[in-house]
Model the fold of this input.
Amino acid sequence: MSRIRKDIASLGGVWSDTMTWYANAVGAMRAKPISDRTSWTYLAAIHGFDQRGWAAQSIIPSFPDLPSGNEQRLMFNQCQHAGWFFLPWHRGYLHAFEAILASWIESQGGPSDWALPYWNYLNAGNATARDIPQEFLDPTYDGGKPNPLATASRGPATSLGTKPWIPVDITLNAQSETFYTSDPGGLGYGGPISGFAQQGNAYGANESDPHNLVHVMVGGGKPVAPQGWMFDPNFAALDPIFWVHHCNVDRLWAAWMDAPGHTQENSQPWLNGPFPRQFMMPNPAGGVDVFVPGETLPGQPLEPMYDKLVHGTGKPPAPASGGLGVRGTAVSKPPASRLIGTNDTDMTLGADRVSSRLAIKAPARSPGLGVAAARRGGKRRVFLSVEGVKGEVPTAVLTVVLTPAGADPAAAPEEAKKTLVFFGLGNATSAEGPHGGSGLTQTVDITDIAASLMDGDEIEAHLQRSEDSDVEVKVERLSVHVREED
Amino acid sequence: MRRFQAFRAQLFSGPLITLITISFGAFVLLWMLQHGFAAVELSASDQGHSHHGLTFPMGYEMLNWCVMVIAMMTPLVAHNLSYVRSAVDARIRGSVALAFLLGYWAVWCVTGLFLMPLTALILALADANIAFLIMILGGLIYSASPIAQLGRNLCHQSQRLEAFGAPAQWSSARYGLVTGMRCTLVCWPWMIVPMLALSGHMAAMIIVTVFLFFDRLSLPTKPAWRIPPALGTVFGPRLGVPALNGPA
Done:
């Protein structure tokens, strides 16, 4: 069966057949207990599960009929974030979710080719692309029935974009990354080498923006905790909008692979996935399948089909002879970034701004450094890494302002302000989770501001949290790297 | 098969192969030390000394112990070493990695001052064969315990490292010391096991090394009594989960 995923905005108006069946299926799955592998709560728990928190919000009973402890350890809390398995794991997750919903829809007399639609929020050709699709806001549908797609805890936002709790907008910047795998201190499309979220703890470009930003825009902004479900990976997949968001994130990856000049990772450690824990998903029959990242690549069994990879992906329209046929992959070996400076102590962030100076090594300030790359037609990129961030909050938003040492951050230009989202910070801080408590790292491209900062021996980073919270967030280290790209 | 492929791919990535090579070299050195000392051992036996009574010169025993822990414990720190190498100036990665290993090995060498007398005490109190079997059972029970899991979780943690020059060496050595202390919390009973083997000492060391290697590959999780994680790593995720491949 060929399922083709389509843009919600192109389905022919609000409450299309596709969206109505999506709502029907969500409602039916919600009625099943969490012990059922095809239930809404079981599927959401695969991403992240907080039994106490779910019970407190009446998502499950106080004494639920849970799967066995061993099964929970194997199936729940699998989500891969801040590492190079983020994209393939979520692709396999979407595939399993879509197959289970499609099976139920077909069994109820619905279309046999039903496919999960995507929320194409970066489509510049659609003036309302960033609005939350109406189907997720209407309290009722289909003649007055309660709408399962609107049954979710969310913040006040009805559209994406700059908000008081996240002062930055989503972009297509990630789509211009050349390499899939991030080198230490640098940025790649899909993230750095990681195990089952054990070693790698830094986001790739796609995960940073738009993925993390959309989660916080939709789930954040509530006046009191807890925030909306999308704000917390242990709740996020309970919100039906999660799936159409991730469908678009996945489509961005498909478009990125399809564009010329990009090299997708296909080394053996990536293709074969982590060890000893592997990726496992339920199937429509209630069994469980193991999958590996290699199966998510073009031409493999878990490859999804999209109606188009242009519009909202930054990919130019394909020539008449091209289209979806370009499927090249190669070993993604990023150029090595060079560490040129760090700050001298760790930092603790409360409500107030905290500043820290980074000493930059003299050779890095040499204007000749980028000449070799420029001569090759390449460029010199500069990155700031905010490393080892820890905090007992589901997600944290930090704004970093970079200035010459001693300068007033209030007078800094707009490009000196970088907003970083640490989605899943609490999970990464727990010593009992697969991250091992090592926290998260976020790397941001600061090439646009670096030239004006590198004149002195030091630059100063001013960090401030965007959300109101009494819980402290710790930052282990700040570092600056340079990378010469061809 | 796919689990094996994933394992094999991990084996050949990162610093693990280098660490396994160091471990192999230490095993060879240990074999040479023990066989090179055979003549001395004969002489010592003539004078009423014996190997299992740990009556060789203390310096020799400590040398043996230190080479033994380098052989057995080095492959366990692959992910810590990956972190160290990624956090420092690329030009000093080698020396900083060595500083980490020296700190880590130092803790394990000092641990010998406690574990060797403990081994001697066990041998004084019980028949060696019985003590060997009891220690294996004790090691398995300990590995299944919450305290061992707490130690395993700690072993996966990183900490701030300095990036340049001598401060980078020192902070890395400190991280090695801390990792070594955490590692002793997880592995100490297993280090006694090979010393209780009357014969096949080297084979027992290799088996324990492989066991601890698979133990360390397991992911951090909530401390609780559970099947020793090394067994789960080897036998796969279906261990103890009935009907996972069929309808629930």
